[in-house]
Design brief:
heterodimer, A: about 100 residues, two-stranded antiparallel ribbon, B: about 475 residues, alpha/beta, Amidase signature (AS) enzymes, 14 helices, about 40% helix, about 15% strand, globular
Amino acid sequence: MSISLNEVRHVARLARLELDETEILSFQGELNALLGHFADIQAIDSSGIEPISHAVAIQNVWSEDIPSQTLPRDRALRNAPVSRAGLFVVPVIIED
Amino acid sequence: MLTELTAVELASRIAKRELGCVEVTEAFLDRIDSLDSKLGCFLSVTRTEATEQAQFAQTLVDEGKGGPLTGVPIALKDNLSTDGIETTCASKILKGYVPPFDATVVSKLKQAGLPILGKANLDEFAMGTSTENSAFQVTRNPWDLARSPGGSSGGSAAAVAADLAPLSLGSDTGGSVRQPAALCGVVGFKPTYGRCSRYGLIAFGSSLDQIGPFGKTVEDVAVLSEAITGHDPMDGTSLKHSPILSADLKSGSLKGLKVALPKELFGDGTDPGVAAQIQAAIDVLAKEGAEFTEVSLPSVKFGVTTYYIIAPAEASSNLARFDGVRFGPRSDGKGHIGVVERTRSEGFGHEVKTRIMIGTYALSAGYYDAYYVRAQRVRAMMQQEFNRTFREFDVVLSPTSPVPAFKLGELHEDPMALKLLDYCTIPANMGGMPGISLNCGFTEGLPVGLQLMTAPLQDEKLLQIAFCVEQALPTATRRPSFS
């Protein structure tokens, strides 16, 4: 499988990365080099093998429902690029 | 010289009042000040905080409340969150980020009285094996300043090798503790997945990431492991096991030890100098009574592919949080998506973008089954092969890295060249197994690392075996002479 320039643009959009045309070309080359290497697992017979997402099978980790101190608001906001009135200011989502 | 002592020796002299905690910490800070400009191990040095923490450590000692490492300073990889101290992941996107909390391991170190010297350099977001992907600086190998210390925890490894810190912490997603330990000639240990809390470790590949210690000796690493492991309710994948115990370290033996040598980890790609040193070590251990058998673990051949699908897939999801809203800089752009896209494009370096792109592709509609699910199946096969091996053998032995330290820039431009060198260390992350690298000699003046792995949760046994191996091998008296 190889990846087209349009697919690179599509994936960059999904990944929320702004790439210029030079970068799109360069990523096409790099991703195709990686995908070329990845061809080795396409031929393996893995029928009957259940895929695993984790080395350790842990399920349903619950914690007791006990009230505790959370991060104070001013500390949570300390790293915000823009904040106002104790809130994170997000970029405009709906234009008027 | 004080800075050449092991952590355990330092702690013992501190406990006997032969050395003061502030004196020890200042000795390392002064050495960093005079030598780190040559090496580039540290992104930040926290002299004020370290001195205060050393004073606190001294009060613990004075009140008889000191622990096994009280007063011994430590360096931290800069992807471990430190309350009030800038934590960058060596990325422009976190430049200026000051965490409002400590990682669990950092809290544990502070309580145990280990002063924190500073934050060590890494490949951006721990993605890389040469530390050349740092957005801020290059780290040099103390054994040859023209060469890489390995990575991604290159700053942590080089700091210990150069006596800038007696101990350090790194993180290991595909070998990022063990490989730089090998290339710098120190000991690096990745515990069983889940034995060390990941809370506050900035995530790369969450099903693979594990924090691990560096030290000059197996004993130093074992004692530090005891300080940082144990169950933590803040990490859902943290196992309900007690801390790793270093107490029985010296009660092991090599006699009758069943050692597997996977032929896939001793392939043609192994540098002849590395192969010779590993073989010499095997010969020494055989004389001590260890029994070696060549085995085959066929799916190990597919480790690099499996890793470079699964880790980027997880990373592409984990790194979605860097959107310029809650932390980090925000760039101007057109509309909401334009702002997010430009922030990320200006903030992330090339390798990080590559991995986000490949991970997003592998998870996208139409390719999910062909890449991500298939890689998960191969991961399951690899785990089953190792489980079968560990039913018959105590330990798996291999080189840690097929090559010694490579020249800076030498492999940096080829996107596959460095990645293909990770095959010895990847299986331990895939299977959650503990793995350790220790020095077993030199080739052309460069350190060679020997890797040992056991079944998951046998960390104590692995450390015991590593201690025996370290004792059996000829003592390395050589030190890097960069200064």
